[in-house]
Amino acid sequence: MVRLYALLFLAQISLAVCALISCLSAEEEAIRGLPRIAWVLVILVFPLVGPIAWFLAGRQRPAGQAGRSRRAPGARGGPRRPPAPDDDPEFLESLAERSRRQDDELFHRWEEDLRRREDDLRRREGDPPREENRPEV
């Protein structure tokens, strides 16, 4: 019987800790009913009822749960959050464009370095440097 009480005590403590973490990490817009400090006090003062009340009435349900109205994101009047970077096509396009620009710059630096090295070799051998517009055969 003592083991059962110890198990229930641990379950109650873990429920309270989870509720406290959830309450303290929730955004202000997601807390319903009472201010955050009041919810913390309810969770701490009423060991079993407080955490259950927090999970049922104190916070908004996540978007995927049943029972929530099927409105478009941001339709409830609150500020819309920006999409995650990997979901934003403009951000992905800017990454691709930046990568293309960096590749072009690197390619041009390599070409300049190669031309400079070729000219240095030609000067050492006594040949005139090649002209820019004339392709080499």
TrEMBL record:
Residues 15-59 form the Cardiolipin synthase N-terminal domain. It is found in: Cell membrane. Coiled coil: none annotated. The chain crosses the membrane at residues 36-57. Residues 60-91, 118-137 are annotated as: Disordered. It is a multi-pass membrane protein. GO terms for cellular component: plasma membrane. It comes from the Bacteria. Keywords: Cell membrane, Membrane, Transmembrane, Transmembrane helix. InterPro entries: CLS_N. This is PLDc_N domain-containing protein.
